[in-house]
Amino acid sequence: MRDLYQRLALSPNATPQALQSAIEACQHNALKQDADAVLMLPERRDAYDSVHATVSDIGRLRSRLGLTHAAHWQGSVANDFSLPPDNAISRHDELVDRVSHAVTLYNRWRRFRGTWLFIATFGIGACAGLAAGVALCMRLWAA
């Protein structure tokens, strides 16, 4: 299926007047006939727009998956709805990375939990003992 809007350099929201002028300016006879037969009749244009939206969504999905046509298809009609590969990280991959990081931190905490608990208990006890000792010394000094 050809992307008639792309081939005529129009947006899918183009007015009938813009469509008519683009079709008249088209140099390719077969494209001109197809566009005139499909886009100039409102019921056919509505059906084409529905299919166009679906095929465009498939093209975006292929792009997100990194799928493109081979070099020999690049200039043909089969490539009308293809987009360059999208190398951005997907939302799913981002969430998997964040959960993996959280699991790694949790596993580290579990591994050192006993050690850290001992250090924290010893530190708190030492500070409490030091504070009690200082308070006792201050009381004896004041007396």
Tally of separate helices: 5
Radius of gyration, CA atoms, in whole angstroms: 35 Å
The separation of the N and C termini measures 100 Å
The CATH architecture category of the largest domain equals Orthogonal Bundle
* CATH topology assignment of the largest domain: Helix Hairpins
Name the poorly predicted regions.
none
Return the structural class. mainly alpha
Rounded mean pLDDT is 85
- Overall form: rod-shaped
Helical coverage, percent range: 55-70%
Notes on the protein architecture:
- The protein is an all-alpha fold and 143 residues long.
- The chain has 2 domains: 4-79, Helix Hairpins; 89-143.
- Helix content is 70%, strand content 0%.
- The chain has 5 helices and no strands.
- It has helices at residues 4-7, 16-25, 29-39, 42-64, 91-142.
- The longest helix is centred in the last third of the chain and has 52 residues, at 91-142.
- It is rod-shaped and about 110 Å long.
- The N and C termini lie far apart (100 Å).
- The mean pLDDT is 85.
Summarize the topology.
Elements: H1 4-7, H2 16-25, H3 29-39, H4 42-64, H5 91-142
Keywords: Membrane, Transmembrane, Transmembrane helix
